[in-house]
Each structure stands twice: as C-alpha cells, then as structure tokens.
Design brief:
Length: 248
Amino acid sequence: MGAEVMTVRAILFDVYGTIFRVGLPSADADQQWVQLFREELQTDPPMNRLAFAAACSRAVARRHEWARARGVTHPEVNWSAVVLEVLPILRQLPGPAQDRFIYRQMQLGRHIELYGGAAETLRKLRDGPWVLGLVSNSQAYTREELRIWLGGVGLGLDLFHPGLCFYSFEHGFSKPDPHVFQCLTTRLEALGIRPEETLMVGDRLDNDIVPARAFGWQTWHLTPQPSDGTHAGNWEQLNRHLFRARDR
C-alpha cells in the first residue's frame, strides 16, 4: 500500500461516523423540544418529539417509495421539505428562521462531535498537496454542523474543493448508489485526477469502501479503535499512514 498511497492526489471523506462521532441525544431532549418551539415560534409544540419522529418516518417512506417506483435504487429526501410537511406551522417563519429551527431540531435527535484526531489530520492535509472532498449521505444542516465544528478548531468548509463535495440531499439519491461515485469520478477526471489516485475515507464498508473500490479508488476504512494501519484504522493511524508515505 505504501507505493499506492504515494500516488494519492485526492482524499474524499464521509461525514457521519467518519468526521463526526454520532451518539445518543441529551437526556433532556424532550424538554428542549418544547423550549425550541417556545423560542422560535412562541407556542408549544403541536406534537411530542416521538410523534414528530414517527410522522417524519412515514413522510420519508412515502418519498422513498415514490422514487423507487421510478428506478431510484437508493433514494434520498430533502429533510427540510419533510419537516415542513409534518410541521406546517414552520411556514410562517422566514427561510433563515426555518433553517435555524431545523438545525436545532436535529441537534435534539443525536449528539455529534469531531472524532479524536480528525482536526489535527485535516489541518495537516490542508497544508499538503492533496485535494480534499466530501461524500456524504447528508442534508442542508450538515453544512452548518461542519461549519460550526470545523470553525471551532480553526478550519472551514473551504478546506474542501466545492466540486468534490457530494451532499446526497441535493441529488435525490445516496450512497452506495454507483451514480454517486460515477459523478465524483467524472469530476475528479476533470481535475486531471485518476481513480487510482483517489482515496475514500469512510466508516462503512457497504456505503463507502465497497462502492469506492468498484470504481478503482483506494480506500481507508476508518475504525473507532486502531486497526491494521495499512487499509484501515483510526484517525491517528490515517495521519501517520499518509504522511509517512509522503515523506519517503
């Protein structure tokens, strides 16, 4: 793998489970749900958080069924549209306030934080010769989460090449659909970067590693704990792996 890594010119990252560790919501999430409505809409919520989640699941299932009936194997929804369908009261808010509500609503559903070693590695990669990108099953709020968390460690979304950022909600389909990787392979080619010069970093074999390999990309399976350190491992191992190969 050492010789392969030396040829890497682009590194594309998954987001959730890779850049972000995703955990359980806060114990007082139900109370925060009520507070969210009172602060943003000056009213109590029309349903509790569990009922909201169930209604959203039904709305997502309808959209997925509609898309699959038209040949989309791995459909994606626009979460903002789902929330507006379930909570039409939000339509009284201007666009930016709707976005803020949905961002805050998502923070109630799970806890995220940067993986240990991610900030240090991304900072070093920023100053290196690589082009960086994102390949994420994600929503509009994902960009805000990245902006806030990366900003907290002195980084920003400008770390990533805009043409190599795939957010699934913008396309209506998601990983592991091969169209995701075909689209990015074509964009990489336009930058003069070949598939074998591209490294996919992700935590899921099914969504990240297997489809990327099918397109001839190199892969790094990100794991919470140290692994073999050649094709898989945590952020610290990825850091050592890339810079050891570069410095040879």
